[in-house]
């Protein structure tokens, strides 16, 4: 490993830099964005646009932005006082210890981050340190010092590779590009060139990362990050060849993939080989890509046609996963174990990233993007998007979008979306959003690395997520019982026995759950069905599980539970304030024949009531439990969020048991009349009819006959909507075997619509060719036979 160097001359200079006089503070004007007309750099327009993200338009700062500027301005003044060039770093509170390989990279990154904050204030016209000579000298000499002693072509990468190849060079490049006119002088040009050399040493390619000395193809967010490093480097060095390699490297990121990391045709986004990660790694990808595309669009000579393919992806992959400003937790991975990774914060950060795309959006996408952004900002009643400014320019753009009366708020929310390539389902209505997280032989169950998400064992085991107007999942994970995740079926003897980070079944851990093949479902317009032939991580429990999602209710069925000591969790809900809950067992209530148990969690402060109808003789438990855990119990954070109470309900099972319950997300039950009939809940099939909607739907795990209704010959998911003269039929093959789906219906005859010509009928047997469907839904129509 290289011995880090320390210059006594450079150290001595700190007293001169830190103790100099104050600089000028001219009146507020548009910012100096780092380039001057006579620099000869062909990328002036792109550089100017890039820098504008950090400074915005200072002539239109509102009080919120100016307060932030004033606060950072004061910080910079304090940092100037405490700054020194020493062997232990630039500031005593960020110690750079070359003997500690695990912290060296992160300490350097934090140091560069602080210098970048100083650079932003130096370039902000409304800051008192605007164009301050002391600030400029401190930054320039610090950058030189850090390069010579810590980050150069002789430095060995130690600890986490991410710091050296992404974290540090991104911050360093942003400083150099923002203060380009200050560094691009006869005295300081060498600093730019030294950083160009250093970043080229650590990041030689815009499409590769170096792990343990070996190049690997970068994917997803990592590719965007290293491409950004090379992009800024190419503009700093005015290198046209390197610039063009970045454009070429970016295009594959937004091309659909069929396996591994990236975006899929159905809208799924995978990172770390098989983990659903739209929320956090998806945000890292968008954060950089939006700024890159926006900046490239500033130069008419740059062709961004291929990069503009990101716009339909924004609407297909990200938009359905938002609910009132929150990003659904089941695509946030291990970030749920961070205080900074809660759903509002992830959602707001993503919205900030998406705002970057608005200005350069093609007209056919621009209005929909603006309406989506405005709806999620306005509808977030728990946390104000504008309380945190992540990017100055985007903050100002978002303010303009919200204030624009011609941009509508989306009031009629009604959709069902199945992300079959990451085993996630979203079902949304105006007053609630319901989600299901599964896994399979294609998708991992959960991720625990770097000491985060230590108890995420069951979060992908058919866990159900119900978002309504309360703030349910914010700070939920630190205090919720991790053995009682709603919707999951669990071996009872495992309770309080699992080791942190254990039971990961994923490609990353080389232990994908090969026993789970049936994970998927079928959708038709705003309705859908999900099916899951579940095996637990230890292969000691198997259960067939289904969810049928309509307007006012979700039906959950389970059968063939192959374990004699297990339970299914109906709910584990955080109580808001003094929310009341109750349970009663009765007969023939709400239009349901036979025994049922009614569980109610009442509304509080206008939060919607939730009701659960447990069908049959099952006797669910109902308990209130309160906890005050520490973030360190589930991750690397510290501190707690205070005492939190939960209402917990579960059903215990014997061998080959089953269960059935209905979730009614937003109703006081006063006028509720059940419209659902469970036609079958067996080892081979789960079938439900919704009488009011004229819908028959089911998951068939094996060949099954329901007399006078349907005969199936192959596994499938099916959804049938009956009209006056037609049957609208949607089918899928969750197994993805590419073998034909075969079934018979008692009330169907000829084909009336078959757009892709995949359907045939032979002697009343209906056959659907699934060769190229890969688990996706196919919809066709048959003529209805009048009985």
Automatic annotation (TrEMBL):
Pfam families xrefs: Lyase_8 (PF02278), Lyase_8_C (PF02884), Lyase_8_N (PF08124)
GO molecular function, one term: carbohydrate binding
Signal peptide feature range: 1-20
Domain of life: Bacteria
Active site, renumbered: 272, 281, 334
Chain ranges of the Polysaccharide lyase family 8 central domain: 416-666
Family to which the UniProt record says this protein belongs: Belongs to the polysaccharide lyase 8 family.
Key words, A-Z: Lyase, Signal
Gene3D superfamilies (UniProt xref): 2.70.98.10, Chondroitin AC/alginate lyase (1.50.10.100), Polysaccharide lyase family 8-like, C-terminal (2.60.220.10)
Residue ranges of domain Polysaccharide lyase family 8 C-terminal in the record: 678-741
Keyword Lyase: yes
Domain Polysaccharide lyase 8 N-terminal alpha-helical, first and last residues per copy: 50-375
One of the GO biological process terms: carbohydrate metabolic process
Protein name according to UniProt: Hyaluronate lyase
GO cellular component terms, semicolon-separated: extracellular region
Keyword Signal appears in the UniProt entry: yes
């Amino acid at each position: 490993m290289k011995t880090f160097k320390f210059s006594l001359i450079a150290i001595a200079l700190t007293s001169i830099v830190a103790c100099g006089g104050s600089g000028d503070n001219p009146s507020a004007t548009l910012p100096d964005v780092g380039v001057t007309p006579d620099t000869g750099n062909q990328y002036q327009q792109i550089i100017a646009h890039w820098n504008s993200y950090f400074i915005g338009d200072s002539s239109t700062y509102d009080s919120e932005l100016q307060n932030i500027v004033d606060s950072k301005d004061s910080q910079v003044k304090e940092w100037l006082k405490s700054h020194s060039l020493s062997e232990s770093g630039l500031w005593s509170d960020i110690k750079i210890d070359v003997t500690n390989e695990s912290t060296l990279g992160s300490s350097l990154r934090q140091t560069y981050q602080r210098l970048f904050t100083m650079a932003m204030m130096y370039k902000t016209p409304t800051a008192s340190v605007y164009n301050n000579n002391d600030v400029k000298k401190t930054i320039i000499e610090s950058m030189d010092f850090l390069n010579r002693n810590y980050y150069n072509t002789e430095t060995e990468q130690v600890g986490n590779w991410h710091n050296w190849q992404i974290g540090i060079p991104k911050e360093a490049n942003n400083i150099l590009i923002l203060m380009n006119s200050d560094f691009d002088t006869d005295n300081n040009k060498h600093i730019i060139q030294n950083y160009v050399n250093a970043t080229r040493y650590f990041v030689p390619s815009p499409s590769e990362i170096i792990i343990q000395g070996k190049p690997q193809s970068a994917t997803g967010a990592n590719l965007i990050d290293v491409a950004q490093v090379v992009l800024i480097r190419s503009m700093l060095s005015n290198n046209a060849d390197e610039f063009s390699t970045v454009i070429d490297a970016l295009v594959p990121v937004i091309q659909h993939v069929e396996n591994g990391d990236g975006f899929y045709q159905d809208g799924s986004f995978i990172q770390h080989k098989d983990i659903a990660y739209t929320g956090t790694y998806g945000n890292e990808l968008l954060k950089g890509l939006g700024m890159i595309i926006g900046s490239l669009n500033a130069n008419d000579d740059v062709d961004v046609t291929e990069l503009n393919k990101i716009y339909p992806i924004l609407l297909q992959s990200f938009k359905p996963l938002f609910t009132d400003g929150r990003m659904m937790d089941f695509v946030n991975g291990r970030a749920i174990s961070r205080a900074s990774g809660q759903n509002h914060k992830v959602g707001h950060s993503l919205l900030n990233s998406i705002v970057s795309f608005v200005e350069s959006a093609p007209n056919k996408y621009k209005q929909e993007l603006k309406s989506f952004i405005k709806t999620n900002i306005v509808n977030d009643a728990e946390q104000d998007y504008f309380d945190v400014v992540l990017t100055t320019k985007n903050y100002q753009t978002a303010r303009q979008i919200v204030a624009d009366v011609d941009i509508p708020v989306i009031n009629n929310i009604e959709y069902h979306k199945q992300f079959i390539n990451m085993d996630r389902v979203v079902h949304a209505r105006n007053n609630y959003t319901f989600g299901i997280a599964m896994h399979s032989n294609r998708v991992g169950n959960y991720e625990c690395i770097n000491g985060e998400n230590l108890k995420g064992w069951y979060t992908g085991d058919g866990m159900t997520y119900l978002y309504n107007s309360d703030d349910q999942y914010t700070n939920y994970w630190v205090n919720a019982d991790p053995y009682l995740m709603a919707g999951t079926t669990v071996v009872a003897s495992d309770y309080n026995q699992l080791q942190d980070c254990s039971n990961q079944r994923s490609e990353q851990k080389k232990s994908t759950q090969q026993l789970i093949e049936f994970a998927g479902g079928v959708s038709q317009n705003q309705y859908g069905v999900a099916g899951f032939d579940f095996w637990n991580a230890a292969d000691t429990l198997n259960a067939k599980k289904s969810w049928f999602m309509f307007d006012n209710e979700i039906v959950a069925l389970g059968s063939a539970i192959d374990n004699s000591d297990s339970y299914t969790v109906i709910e584990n809900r955080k109580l808001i304030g003094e929310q009341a809950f109750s349970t009663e067992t009765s007969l023939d209530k709400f239009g349901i024949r036979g025994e049922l148990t009614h569980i109610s969690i009442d509304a509080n402060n206008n939060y919607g009531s939730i009701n659960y109808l447990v069908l049959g003789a099952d006797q669910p438990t109902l308990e209130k439990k309160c906890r005050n855990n520490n973030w360190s119990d589930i991750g690397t954070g510290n501190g707690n969020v205070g005492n939190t109470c939960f209402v917990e309900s579960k059903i215990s099972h014997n061998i080959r048991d089953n269960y059935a319950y209905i979730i009614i997300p937003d109703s006081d039950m006063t006028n509720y009349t059940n419209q659902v009939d469970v036609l079958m809940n067996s080892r081979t099939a789960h079938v439900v009819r919704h009488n009011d909607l004229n819908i028959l739907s089911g998951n068939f795990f094996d060949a099954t006959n329901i007399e006078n209704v349907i005969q199936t010959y192959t596994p499938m998911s099916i959804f049938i909507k009956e009209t006056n003269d037609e049957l609208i039929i949607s089918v899928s093959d969750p197994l993805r075997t590419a073998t034909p789906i075969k079934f018979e219906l008692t009330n169907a005859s000829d084909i009336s619509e078959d757009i892709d010509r995949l359907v045939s009928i032979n002697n009343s047997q209906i056959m659907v060719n699934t060769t190229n469907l890969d688990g996706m839904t196919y919809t066709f129509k048959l003529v209805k036979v009048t009985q």
